[in-house]
């Protein structure tokens, strides 16, 4: 559920979305927040998803927490990309939750990873570690579709992870696996557990997991598309 009371109507076309995003380029988070009369937190330590949700609001994303792309009618996902002022990607990019409760075989075209990554609006946001959130600067947003080669690698990473889940080998999943797409724990604390099955078919509790794009991959995407 959104933590913002302000509502922006969703864009009706790709061009409208692009225009909205382009108007943000060069502005700080504080400037955009002032236009929308939204208070900016001092830091993001306890507001991990705030920045992404704020940009979603400002651009009129309407999917909420659904497994569909953020702009449902346009079939476009929004991803913010934290960078430093040298253009270096600072962290991995969350894609979606890995459903550990449903161990049935899922096809790639039906997966949330496929749906969310087939067309993405990237919004790079530059910030030095000593800067406040309001001073974070929005770089040039860009629409992106993965090349066939890149999408094939992401698909293979996804299939390998899903095979391990279906075989009950969740405990063997780790962030070292996957060339572009990795699986990492996604939980506010170690007590937030979810249920799945082990290799013997017995129900167990484990940390929730999520799919993330590696910084090395998003750095490649950024270098191929970012206008400085």
TrEMBL record:
InterPro entries: DNA_mismatch_repair_MutH (IPR004230), DNA_rep_MutH/RE_typeII_Sau3AI (IPR011337), DNA_rep_MutH/T2_RE_sf (IPR037057), Restrct_endonuc-II-like (IPR011335). One of its GO terms (molecular function) is hydrolase activity. CDD domains: MutH-like. Residues 59-157 form the DNA mismatch repair MutH/Type II restriction enzyme Sau3AI domain. One of its GO terms (biological process) is mismatch repair. Belongs to the MutH family. This is DNA mismatch repair protein MutH. It comes from Aliikangiella marina. The lineage of its organism: Bacteria, Pseudomonadati, Pseudomonadota, Gammaproteobacteria, Oceanospirillales. The gene is mutH.
């Amino acid at each position: 559920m959104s933590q913002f009371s302000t509502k922006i109507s969703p864009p009706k076309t790709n061009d409208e979305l692009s225009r909205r995003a382009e108007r943000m380029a060069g502005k700080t988070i504080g400037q955009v927040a002032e236009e929308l009369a939204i208070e900016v937190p001092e830091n993001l330590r306890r507001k991990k998803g705030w920045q992404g949700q704020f940009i979603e609001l400002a651009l009129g994303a309407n999917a909420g927490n659904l497994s569909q792309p953020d702009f449902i009618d346009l079939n476009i996902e929004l991803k913010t990309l934290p960078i430093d002022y040298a253009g270096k990607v600072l962290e991995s990019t969350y894609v979606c939750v890995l459903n550990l409760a449903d161990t049935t075989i899922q096809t790639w075209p039906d997966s949330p990873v496929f749906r969310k990554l087939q067309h993405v609006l990237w919004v790079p946001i530059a910030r030095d570690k000593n800067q406040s959130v309001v001073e974070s600067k929005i770089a040039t947003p860009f629409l992106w579709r993965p090349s066939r080669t890149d999408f094939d690698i992401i698909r293979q990473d996804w299939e390998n992870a899903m095979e391990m889940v279906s075989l009950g080998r969740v405990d063997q999943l780790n962030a070292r696996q996957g060339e572009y797409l990795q699986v990492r724990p996604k939980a506010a604390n170690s007590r937030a557990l979810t249920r799945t099955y082990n290799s013997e078919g017995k129900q167990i509790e484990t940390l929730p997991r999520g799919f993330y794009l590696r910084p090395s991959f998003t750095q490649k995407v950024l270098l191929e598309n970012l206008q400085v």
